[in-house]
Amino acid sequence: MRDFRIAPSLLSADFACLGQEVRDVIAAGADIIHFDVMDNHYVPNLTVGPLVCEAIRPHTQAPIDVHLMVKPVDSLVPMFAKAGADIITFHPEASEHIDRTLGLIKESGCKAGLVFNPGTSLSYLDHVMDKIDMVLIMSVNPGFGGQSFIPHALEKVRAARQRIDEYTAKHGGEIWLEVDGGIKVDNIAAVAAAGADTFVAGSAIYGQPDYQAVIAAMRAELAKVA
User: Fold this and answer.
1) Of the residues 86, 133, 180, 197, which is catalytic?
2) What are the tens digits of pLDDT across the range 74-98?
3) Per-residue pLDDT tens digits for 6-54
4) Which of the four, 53, 120, 173, 175, has the lowest number of CB atoms within 10 Å?
5) Which residues bind substrate (predicted)?
């Protein structure tokens, strides 16, 4: 039986009161805070940096999951680690040396993960599974919140689950499988059935007046998945 984790994305929160938004969503039953970093270079949008991560850190004991949509990556890793990140993920296309970047994240005291866009091959995992704590499958193209789920992402989730299960059966350890993009109450069970255990939801949660009701509805759907 997998443990399921819900990770609201601050990208869809009210930026005028982020501390309160963090407290409210955790109180409503969320497990993780998903923190999207965009640089207007790797993706065509500009969001938040280490100072904002540092500002929200005192507002929760929950893990902060920093998703770096930036290029280059390495210079920001120690900055976010110092700012309070617990997990740092990045896109393999954005790093000149993927193994080195994963090692840097681990050396900085954080869990490390790779992020796969809809068109990115999982083959980047072939030689670095020993440094991976999380695989993040994008079910939209990165850059903007509020996009619709891309259905064929389920195939990639299933393929990633197979890779993770084969590796952990042989070597032990735990690797989370996170999915980000268009996750909502009516598709979260299908994503879980494909193999995901961690679910990023932005507008599906922060776009609703009652965070607790949405998260409870998501958990009710997840409870249907064996």
Assistant:
1) 180
2) 999 999 999 999 999 999 999 999 9
3) 999 999 999 999 999 999 999 999 999 999 999 999 999 999 999 999 9
4) 173
5) 9, 67, 143-146, 180-182, 202-203
109 is in an annotated binding site: no
CATH number for position 206 = 3.20.20.70
Domain count, the chain: 1
Q: What is the pLDDT of residues 86-136, one digit of tens each?
A: 999 999 999 999 999 999 999 999 999 999 999 999 999 999 999 999 999
36 catalytically annotated = yes
Is 181 annotated as contributing to ligand binding? yes
Residues 6+ positions from 61 with CB-CB distance below 8 Å: none
Q: Which residue from 90, 47, 88 is spatially nearest to 65, judged by alpha carbons?
A: 88
Query: Distance between CA atoms of 170 and 182, rounded to whole angstroms?
Result: 33
182 labelled ligand-binding: yes
Catalytic, 180? Answer yes
Burial 42-72 (b: 16+ CB within 10 A, else e): bbeeebbbbebbeebbebbebbbbbbbbbee
**Strand-strand pairing, 134-138 and 64-69:** unpaired
Which band of pLDDT confidence, cut at 50, 70 and 90, is reported for residue 226?
low
Length of the chain: 226
What amino acid is encoded at 131 in this protein?
Answer: K
